Amino acid sequence: MAFPQPERGGLSPANGRRDRPEPSAPTRGALATTACMETLQVGYLHAVAAAAGCSLAQPFPDYGIDWHVSHSAPGHTVDDEVTIKVQLKATYQLAPRPAARPARPPGTRPTDLQGARPAAPTFAFTLDNDHLAKLARTPVSVHKILVVMIVPRARDDWLRAEHEGLELRHCCYWTNLAGHPVTGRNRTTVRIPTTRIFDDRALCEIMTRVGAGGRP
Question: What is the pTM assigned to this prediction?
Fold first, then answer.
């Protein structure tokens, strides 16, 4: 006697539980990955600015600076509202939490070193010299910061939405390049501190320093 097979999504005779359909990959748009990365980091900036109570403005036309971020607070001494300029960059060529290269004892191989590596104090990022010169100019009336986002290579891993929240991967780091020398022929490598995670608290602290007449 033949028994009918349960349909997909029906009850499994083995465990009595309803089978879950296998998730299918979504059909994503044909927009270039680099363009999607730019959109992702803008979303990150908007979320940070919203949590920090800052307003955003986008210069038009863009002249090497992506966004103006403004912050109003009664504690500011130079003005009731202070503004910084933000240049956004993104890369998928680095792993999350860029790791320090561990010291290798004599006679050991790289595979002998077990466990997760600690975060490095900085990671390398390369800028065109003209762009770096603009970010490094000093003195300035409006301070500038560079914000670099490390994203997963696959867009499937960029974000995950759940009832408890929206996870956006991986992370943005910021630095102030004022006074940084231009050393390369066409491009120069700068070091981005991993201690400077760009979030709402970091942005508020930046604005507090600028509001007191200091640097970011």
Answer: 0.80
